[in-house]
Amino acid sequence: IDGLVDPDIVITIRDYLDFCYLARRDIHDEDSIDQMERALRDFRTHREVFRDNGVRAEGFSLPRQHSAGHYMDRIWAFGAPNGLCSSITESKHIKAVKEPWRRSNRYNAMYRMLLTNQRLDKLAAARADFTERGMLEAPNSADTTKRRRGKKKAVVHPRAPAQDGTDTAGRTVLSHISMASRSRGRQSQSVQKLAEEFDIQNLRDHIRRYLYHRLQQNSRVSGALLSLDDCPPFEDQRISVFHSATATFYAPSDPLGEDGMSHEIIRANPKWRKGAARYDCVFVNNGSNAPGLLGLDVARVRLLFCFKYQGQLHQCAVLHWYWRTEDEPDEDTGMWVVKPAYVQRTGRRAPAVPHISVVHIDTIVRAAHLIHQQNRTITYGSYRNFAKLRNNQALDFFSTFFVNKYIDYHAFDLLHCDRPVT
To answer: Could you give the CA distance from residue 57 to residue 32 in angstroms, rounded to a whole number?
Structure first.
């Protein structure tokens, strides 16, 4: 909606989303509480645009917006909510009020509803006690044996201490990516054929630059300045092509996953489900500890492949880079803005080519979601082009994109930067 509605409306929604995502964090400190207070204060300031335009002329007497003001004190008193939803009272209302009401004869309903809840609580307590004593199942029954055989081993939390008291170094997995279990059926034997099939120019040269940095990890020479004469040779070798990879990362604030671990599939498929191509975007670790997108890069995966070189397996990805337009997030949306990177070739009429590189997949953090940045001056011709645009063409059609930090709580923690105090 940026560029289509009043900027104050965009800022209002951003402030409230920031507050909600900050409240969902699994660990809070003074800094996060201060950020929540500022986000809520800014939200209450900018929401006046709805009163000024007559949308909420009577004011903002809304229970959930009112309860947001108590979150900070309750977090200090009881700890992080960590997924507790304010709708829990509605779900309890169904069990404690609506269902007992339907079971009653509507006469003297309050007494009968309380009696129903009391009996249900006693039955639940008795069942828990009988189950603990083993009184609800026969010790040698077929169901009991089946459950015992199918019982899974306990999953060790990535940050839990070892049971034997040994060192836990290396047990925490913040991010890991692995190729699909099987490569595609047809494999290209030649790098040149692979480059033509996926429309990647100078693929062999990019692989040679990758091998130089991989074999000499202490080198600080930039890939753009690296001479091919210094790179190791790469002849035609057997290359296995994959159409997907799985990213696993530690996201304790998200409701999905076991023991805080979540995973998602990153795809680079020229015929996704026998249709159009699908090349996902990813976050790439650039080795910096800077906050937000200053410590990460954004790229689009063009190819996933692996090969053996000098007896060592290399799992790689061809990435088309997206550069930041500014060194800070957008003022209205709070999201970073990126644009595809291109290299201008020599020659007046030579077209620019995508700026691509070959990297090891262990530098990829997770998938990224880009939203096209709406042009504030839209012409009639632009609307006609939008009507013909398909979803798989968006990344090639638009020139700038927002990096969506609201896709989940893990992405928010990666990209969110605290705003300066005004």
So the answer is: 33
Q: What is the pTM of this model?
A: 0.73
**What is the extent of the structural domain holding 131?**
89-143
Rounded Cα distance, 276 and 270, in Å: 7
Tell me the residue type at 328.
E
Residues 73 and 93 occupy one common structural domain: no
| Residues 139 and 21 both lie in one domain | no
Burial annotation 258-283 (CB, 10 A radius, 16+ → b, else e): eebbbebebbbbbebeeeeebbbbbb
170-180: buried (b, 16+ CB within 10 Å) or exposed (e) per residue?
A: eeeeebbbebe
Same domain, 42 and 119: no
Q: Name 397's Cβ contacts closer than 8 Å, sequence gap at least 6.
A: 372, 385, 389
161: pLDDT strictly greater than 60 = no
- pLDDT tens digits, 246-300: 988 887 776 655 567 788 899 998 888 888 889 999 999 888 788 888 889 999 9
Q: Would you state the pLDDT for residue 75?
A: 87
Helices (H), 134-224: 142-149, 191-198, 203-215
Helix 30-46 vs helix 71-78: crossing angle, to nearest 10: 160
- In this structure, are 282 and 267 located in the same domain? yes
Res. 370: pLDDT tops 90: yes
Pick the more confident residue, 52 or 141.
Answer: 52
What are the residues facing 339 on neighbouring strands?
A: 323
DSSP 8-state class, residue 71: H
| Other CB atoms within 10 Å distance of the CB of residue 397 | 12
